[in-house]
Amino acid sequence: MSGAVPDTTRSAELFDRARRVLVGGVNSPVRAMRSIGRDPLFIDRAEGPHVWDADGNRYVDYLSTWGPAILGHAAPAVLDAVRDALPRGTSYGAPTEREVVFAGGCG
Fold first, then answer.
1. Is the per-residue pLDDT at 31 higher than 80?
2. With b meaning 16 or more CB within 10 Å and e meaning fewer, what string describes 89-101?
3. Is CATH 3.40.50.10490 correct for 9-88?
């Protein structure tokens, strides 16, 4: 993104609507945006190391969703794994082999 001030009209509209239905208008620690003198951005999509706001502005995502996106957003290997897992269901309330594998007990 260049040094120009981005248009955030759509994000502002979404924030106005969100304040009517969510405490503080957001569902995460972005409430702290006030401490730097701005309203939060509303993210529309993400890919690799970038996020795009609701106004189409692209940013480097230094937060990486607080860590879980260490491979970047929409990493092909992660998307493939999710596509493979979804038909099996996503939550059972009981132990699964995958839990053991993810925890490192695959050997």
1. no
2. eeeeeeeeeeeee
3. no
